[in-house]
Amino acid sequence: MGGSEGFLIGKALILLLLVPGILGWGKEGHYAICKIAEKYLTEDSLAAVKQLLPESAEGDLAVVCPWADEVRFHYHWSSALHYVDTPDFKCNYKYCRDCHDTYGHKDRCVTGAIYNYTMQLASSYEDIKSESKYNLTEALMFLSHFVGDVHQPLHVGFTGDLGGNTIVVRWYRRKTNLHHVWDTMIIDSALKTFYDSDLAIMIQAIQKNITYGWSNDKPSWEHCVRNDTVCPDLYASESVSLACKFAYRNATPGSTLQDDYFLSRLPIVEKRLAQAGVRLAATLNRIFATQAKIAEA
Ligand SMILES: [Zn+2]
Hints:
Layout: H1 3-18, H2 27-39, H3 43-52, H4 61-64, H5 67-70, H6 95-98, H7 110-123, H8 136-149, E1 168-171, E2 174-177, H9 178-194, H10 199-211, H11 218-222, H12 232-247, E3 256-257, H13 259-296
Parallel strand pairs: 1-3
Antiparallel strand pairs: 1-2
């Protein structure tokens, strides 16, 4: 690597560190969601996923789940697809009203992107190895990422504060913004405080909760009305409601968030990671079940 290249990459890394708030769940969150999803994939679905993954993933979906954040600057068009904002102080979400980018282009938001990439994967059913007009590897990586993002409450936050990005707070002693607290800080603090700084232990704990604590809720998490393949509008509605009830509450600009906030919000974060994982698996299972059926016919 040449010196200037190294410098540029260094510079890009610094830029990434300076704008962490807009990225969606941090790397850990996205990885955890996809690790959870992997456990609930059917055999057909797992085979289809493995066929679509890039070689670098070595058969592990979780490895590519943060990818959409890494290409945000390169794929400039994709940056509006990580979130959907609602009018200020409206604690509800409506696709027609809210799903657009800052230029007003319709369908360019996280829920629109989830519909789009689900459609791309589901419609390329003939044979996933045959030529499709879509890049299905990217469709899978985007879908897996955006199902995660739409479950982060502040990815469906208010337009005026950019989903909490402009609300400067302290997380214990560190200066940051509210969006970043929900993307990364709550998970980071949980890892350090409860999970021996080991993400695998945190993922195991969430999986255990799905099996025991939330086992009665899991079927309703997986279910979409009208037998739809995916239902991101529901996930977004839940998110904005959680944003109002938990994320924005007691987190005004300049406030210091510590134990009270951390301990009462961590269960929300862990449940959203669990729901995102379960729903991503259910969606992929529906997409690839249709494919298997059509292939058989
Ligand atoms: Zn994202």
